[in-house]
User: Fold these one by one.
Assistant:
Number 1:
Amino acid sequence: AVVSTQSTGSVRLFALLTIGGIGKHRDLSERQELQSVIMGSFNSTAEDVKSAASYALGNVCVGNLNLYLPSIITEIQDNPKRQYLLLNSLKEIITSMSDREESVSVLKNYVPEMWNVLLRYMQVSEEGSRKIVAACLGKLMLIDHGTLLPKLLEYTTSDQPFVRSTVVTAIKYTVTDTPQPIDPLLRQFLGQFLSLLKDEDLNVRRMALVTLNCTAHNKPALIRDHMDEILPNLYKETTIKLKREVEMGPFKYPVDDALDNRKAAFECMYTVLQNCIDRVNIFQFLDHVEIGLKDVPDIKMLTYLMVLRLIQINPNAVVLKLDNILEPLRDTFNSKLKDICPIGQEVEKANELKRSAMRTVIGMGKIPEIEKHPSFIEFMKKIRFYKEIDNLFKQELQASDSEEMVWEN
């Protein structure tokens, strides 16, 4: 079924996935042609068939590591056009075998060889391949952290940005949501890896932000002692904008090369707020929330969630910053649809932004004695003057099932 040129794509896909599932638990080496048959599907025009072939090859290797792994490592080095699929097969091997103690003991024999091969591909131009390399490096460090983690640290000073981004991404794959033997060593070295938050390269910083967010989510204890160094670099990323114009035919479109970094930074801030609030100066934090309240819709939505969380944690700090929070909220309600959503974005996204802003207003209405605050009184009068906004207020108030909001009427 796999080799038949007359087989449909779905049949080949099913056959490859089945072979992979069987090969993971049984040695299939008696079928001498199996590896070449599977790799023949790498030439398919269907991406899902190629992915299934990559999965199958990796899992068949699990059934007989000694036979298949050396040839896969050789193929990775000899076939650059198949590099992504072969690296993905290697990831399947490492992932499958690192879950069971008896398998790990076998895999350990090949860790040095796999590690050295992976290091050669840290600077490939294809981002997808680099992510797979990073995942493999991270999972190998879980197997032999004492040797490999210090070795990886040396590459944080590489003069190649792709290498540095792969290094810091690899750390993300060591930070699991369960306790691991690597954790004490991570706590010791994590600050040095996260120093890449101040790297000169935009992409390296973005990968460092992703790793920081993962750590703050899964194991915040690992970064608590490093927050004094982390936060200034995190806050700095919220302010960087790199705008330019791109021409497409007769039209020009604005592009902000730093947007993905800012989104990643605000996502980190939200996670830090949830899990590391005891290490945060609330007023400094709010200063950067205010910046986000004036950014693009995706970032505004994140900052609205932060304001709601801060209302629960420290309502007095929110009240002290109230004027600076209300101003961008008022701008959102007053904005025309075209101002909120540039060309190509959905109308529903603009409407959801206003609904999210209104939920934030309703949340502020629950702060004790907020009804006596002059700025809030004036704000509510102005936004409820317009029928459309007043209707939105009533809808969201009803949806929130709030009995504490003092501005129902």
Note: Strands lie at 243-248, 251-256.
Number 2:
Amino acid sequence: MAWSGIVLRFSRKKTKVLAFMGCSEWLPLLGSRHVSTASPKSKHGLQFNPSKVVVLVKTTRYEFEQQRYSYAGLSEGDLKRLLALKGSSYNGLLEKHSIHTRNVEHVVDSLRKEGIEVRVVNRREYDEETVRWADAIISAGGDGTMLLAASKVLDQSKPVFGVNTDPERSEGHLCLPIHYTYSFSEALQKLWSGHFRWKWRQRIRIYLEGTGVNPVPVDLHEEQLSLENYNSAHHIRMTETWPKDTPGIHLIPVRALNEVFIGESLSSRASYYELSVDDGPWEKLKNSGLNVCTGTGSKAWSYNINKLSYQSVEDILMLAKKYRKLDFSADKKLVEMVTNEYNDSLLINPEEPIMIFSIREPIVNRIFSSSEQHGFTKKICIRSRCWDACMVVDGGSSIEFNDGALATLVINKDDALRTVQLED
């Protein structure tokens, strides 16, 4: 009798190869559960085989409000009345929290059914040790949670991807398609079988040098800190955790997946700095701040800073027609075509090693100029002349950036974040 073999899969992570004679004699005894004749390696040559996964869950608004007033020992009834006074719906927040919780449980249960060890953490528990422990990181929330998950991952071998746990109310641009929120096991099967590709999202690294710099970021948490708390946090870090006037060039220990914003902490105050693009000449600028983004971030804040509205394009076309006596009809179809083509030109592929800089509301006079309001770059240098400014990375980490500090922003391919794109 000829020899043959199968792979007996007790779970996805526990396989044994059995050699046998006459498999039809004993195969029915095993039952159908966890039996596969497929090779552990996908037909596409791609492998996603984590044994330990961290699931980072977002803090819902309901949880935030509970934590915010926990010191007062409020009952649920007290919290309900307090939210009503603020114009918020207790039942609405509780419903959103319940939806999020159910979807998180679905993700975790799907992973554990595949024999994967899962550690569920919130943002306060998410640290470097947790990242080192995991083979892969899954964010369970929205884009903000995905940005947080990515912020602590510097190892290119560690995949990071997100699941949108409230797709009715959250865009989830950086997460898997909404369909997989409710059918995460289907996403896992595509990963096991290799029906995906690695998507390498480029990130920005920041070098900081100069006098009085503090390269240790302050975590802004999910809720924006008040100006008083923000200044206090930076003051504590400067005086207690980092000596002043430390010489040398410091590499900031976070990478920007979306963007870096540089500007005064008080938004009503103009930001004053000097700028050099791609080692070009220095230019003195005063404006409402500088946004530098990746291809991933080109669909976010940067896009909304630079995009043109239908109305603006229509007005420009009518003026062109008037002054140049051009013979064309500025009808709705033409205006939409020009608007869409211009706005699409503001986007770049997330895997391209290039950045977009955007200068917000530049002041132009005989002292200050602005030769370009936005553009593409591979390297950008900023010298601060601000009094109370910061660099904010992906809206979650802030670095003090005052007069005398010099920042250099570049993209290094070694910083690219390994994410996944599932096949349709």
Note: DSSP finds twelve helices and 22 strands in the chain.
Number 3:
Amino acid sequence: MLNSIEKSRKCHGKVDCHSTSSQSSVTGSLPKRRQDLLKWNGWGYKDTEFILNEKLQVELTGTRYKLSGMVLPLLKDWMLNNFNVNLDYVRPAQPEFSAADLPSPVINKPFLEDLQTSGLEHSLDCHDRLFRAHGHTLNEIWALREGSFNRIPDLVAWPTSQVEVMQMVQLANKHNVVIIPFGGGTSVTQALECPSTETRMIISLDTSQMHKILWLDEENLTACLESGVTGKEIEQRLASRGFCLGHEPDSYEFSTLGGWVATRASGMKKNIYGNIEDLVVLVRTVTTRGLLEKSCNAPRTSSGPDLHHAILGSEGTLGVVTEVVVKIRPLPECQKYGSVVFPCFQDGVSCLREVARQRCAPASIRLVDNEQFVFGQALKPENNSLVQSFLDGIKKAYLTRWKGFDINKMCVATLVFEGTLKEVEAQEKRVYETAGKFG
């Protein structure tokens, strides 16, 4: 159904989170000036990086992660062996680009005048524009570090609600201006790149300031969230109410709910929770014709085409996703982590195929090849515990001497089990029994 105005929200049997003071005061994890918090020419936070300390040992800076502040004694040798790094060669950090280094903005004056009159927050700052000119493919990061972009967004806008998105789209439609929706910026499909041949003004519509949980229905186990909320924020806020979404792509710390819908995302725990298309109940999308949404707020209907499947995976080409109703679950009673080592990658593949055939896969089962396995070992922090060192030595001796595994061929499957205690125990029993036939 196409609507030109937003419907009033009815929260029968729901907790209306939008009206609470706690929601209205919530600050999202992504600021407007992302370059103040995140690396402008790479992945992650500015305060988190690998450095060589005074003893020429690798350390991870910052305080955000379990490895932060720890010495990683094996990582330097791994880097030397795999990348042929010359530690004697040092060059200064790449300076940030100035406005003179970047394409000048294409300005549609009537549009800009109407935008300024509307009061919608926006920026022409060159650093704001550059940050939203790319995703995180190797090609895009290379262009940031060594090359240049022929075209970047001309203006960045930060709507704070669905109503403001509708205003922005109406203005863009009126003045023939291009909009590229921008969520977490973690895209690996080059969908955020501006076409070099585009002569119209290009707006990067940043949804990061739309990060509220609008309502939560504890009876029907659904919640309505704004599209700019990140995966990490979703899980933290739902957990405070005793629930979870369970969708955890590798990028979930930075990627957003709207981005998951636009890219038809998959998560590491899909075996239990499903992919994003399995979690979506309702999607609201602002198009040039108005607000697109199904008239029935239900997981499934039998009549007519499903509009969600047009929006899912559309990469922002059909409209701007503003609000999403998703299925939620109570937090699992039990969560356990495990791993299984195999003598070679093919044995690991055979095991996972058998696990899939028996339909006994846990929440997450992930096969890591030898290169990733060795890298994982190189990330182990310095261990000052004699007991732990002794146990690690026993494990290594068991695998290499007793089992006869070649350390240059072995691989590992990482496991996550979730559910009730009995469910987890049953999953562990079946998975480990199956794995025992292959490793």
Note: The chain has 15 helices and 19 strands.
Number 4:
Amino acid sequence: MSGELTPPPGGYGSNTGTCEGLRLMYQNLSTLSELRQRQEALMDNILTMHQEMRVFKDRMISEVDAVLARTPCLIRERTKVDLDEVEIEQENLPPPLVPTPINRVS
């Protein structure tokens, strides 16, 4: 015995005297075998994708480091500005908004 599933002598769908319980068991074993194969394929794909993501991350980090080394980032010191001291050209400003009263009719 190898432990592998062997179909009954007429196939799964035949009525060769196999009781309903046995037929259902063989069908379930076949379904489980298919599910196991799909699970193994899925796990292989997951491992492949994980490896690709790791390579992508490493490549992206090295590209960012290369760009940062090629073009250094210069941070200028902030100068404090007092808004009251800044002169604004008054003639370019629109006139102030004035609320208009609304007459309510009851």
Note: Residues 5 and 30 are 8 Å apart (CA to CA).
